[in-house]
Specification:
two-stranded antiparallel ribbon; 190 residues; alpha+beta; 9 strands; 7-stranded mixed β-sheet
Length: 190
Amino acid sequence: MTTTLDRVAQPAVALRPARLSLTPKTALAGRLDGAWWPYSRDLEAELPALAATLDETWGRITRVSVNPSRWPVIPRKVAVAGHLLHVGWFTEQDPDKLILLSYTVGRWDLLVIPPETEPAAAVRLMAAAAIPGSVLAADVLMANETVLGRGIRDARSREAIWEDEGGACMSPFGSPMGRTTLPLLGNGWR
């Protein structure tokens, strides 16, 4: 028995724009060529937008290499704008890095910012990864951001505790005053 399936034309899925920060073209070669902040950990959904954006800038991307520790499923091939993108994985590769290859142009290394990263942290990482001539590797940038992010969260927490525990200035009438309502020294206050 032969079964024939009628294929119904599927509407094209609108790709979300790739969130990228690329190192400007200079004579200074760094360890990274920029950063990519995917929306999810689904390579099959994320790679088409990335490759489509980079195909215009760098030429056709033909291969991608990742570390499997950050990606739950690694497809062997991903369809991208009329061609196939071959996906490979290496456990020795930095988990926070994506390697892109092109037959005509060469290789690029991008820092991969985890999808769940807070926007402010992602902006800092994208800027740091795009510095021309930077010698910082992907794992170093991620470790630095972890320390910096922890410091920012701790400072905000200390400030909130200060305000919650009565750290606000009190007026002589017993009501708290905000920072904008502090009296000037020339008005008889000391």
